[in-house]
Amino acid sequence: MLSILLMTALAVQYPSASKPATDTTSRARQPAAAARDTNRSAAVTRAAFHDAMRVLWEDHIVFTRNYIISASAGLPDTTQVAERLIRNQSDIGDAIKPYYGDAAAAQLTALLSSHIMAAAKVIAIAKAPSTQANSQYTMTTARTSDTTKMRSGDTTKAQSAMSDTTSLNAAVAAWRANADSIAAFLSAANPRNWSRSTLQSSLRSHLDMTLKEATAHLHRDWAGSIAAYDEVHQQILQLADVLSEGIMKQFPNRFSSKATTMSSLQ
Structural domain of residue 214, as residue ranges? Predict the structure, then answer.
């Protein structure tokens, strides 16, 4: 029962981004550190920053897929995958901190965390029959302590509405509204290089592709799920490139074309 799994996995106190709950690969840690630490050294290369941003957004889709798989199958790692997925949103927020400041980083993290919670709700509604849809979701994001919680409320209204088309449409609309808010936030930070309409279109495409991937998986269309993920992967790399290139254009003096080793960026 995916709706119950979603609530169980996300109804935990998530640790600080600096204290991951699960082990991750060095591939994810090193480039992410490079992106966050560009304010410490002018020696960060354009190539390193470009790759760092790609890794962060690849993690975003990889752990989203892992969560879809784990939650739908009721695997014992569901909670740990959910924690890692939420932590990725803080990692992305931290990546812009050297350029736009702490407040902007916190705001982006909050928006992206809302993006994850909204996606979880959409998937739960799409999956659960009315007999299983017995919960309503409440989301709380507390940036001051880098924690994210999801609670369930047992209201009769939520129980009857979960499987209804109107409820699903409303959840998708809220998910898209959040994507529009992310696009507006980023465009305001870098209007010359990040067109609001372009970002809005890109983020909405990301939602549509992710929903296609999740729907295929939930219906045991394994080939369709994999094909959809391939589309998600290609699209997210394009978005990551737009973001990294926009930052490098806005702050050209913060980057170098000189070759350097990854160890020098840590």
Answer: 2-265
